[in-house]
Amino acid sequence: MEVFKDYYRNTVKFVKNEMYFSNQPKHVWVITKHKGQWLLTKHKNRGIEFPGGKVEQGESADQAARREVYEETGGIVKELHFVGQYYVDGKGGDIVKNVYFAQVDELEERPHYYETEGPMLLDDIPKNVKKDNRFSFMMKDEVLQIAIKEVKRL
Ligand code: GTP
Questions:
Q1: Could you give the ipTM of this predicted complex?
Q2: The whole model's pTM is what?
Q3: Boundaries of each Nudix hydrolase domain copy (predicted)?
Q4: Is 139's C-beta closer than 6 angstroms to any atom of ligand 1?
Q5: CA–CA gap between residue 140 and residue 7 (Å, rounded)
Q6: Hey, what domains does the chain have and what are their CATH numbers?
Q7: Contact 87, 26 (CB under 8 A)
């Protein structure tokens, strides 16, 4: 288990390859690639981040991961790999989130992208992402670094 503080100084615990904190996590986050580039989305309030969100009633976490990628980027997930799970001891309550890696072949143009402005393709995630205010807080803790390391191993 890896333990660290996030951007808001909340404690985060991350466990690889295992649904360690909950069998029914309520949140998902998907590190996504499309034709060799990183596929992110621009959230209207939080800024640039990988797609993700809440698991809906009657849906599995894997289904939520595919749906969120589609809603926020138009990307149709071909392969979905589970990477790990993290727990955030947040001020407004605890959350448990599954992290995935998804390979997207097809990017469909959509009339709207929910809370986001749609897809954003990047060759690289900037080294100074922590200090770059275009990026969401979700991109600013060790979860991103751990997940990207895992994705490179896959
Ligand atoms: P909505 O209900 O979706 O409008 O947003 P919310 O921010 O109120 O709810 P959510 O349950 O998504 O998140 C609650 C809090 O948990 C956030 O304000 C963050 O502090 C924290 N949180 C959520 N997702 C993450 C994440 O991926 N990483 C980290 N470090 N904290 C997160």
A1: 0.90
A2: 0.96
A3: 21-154
A4: no
A5: 6
A6: 2-153 (3.90.79.10)
A7: no
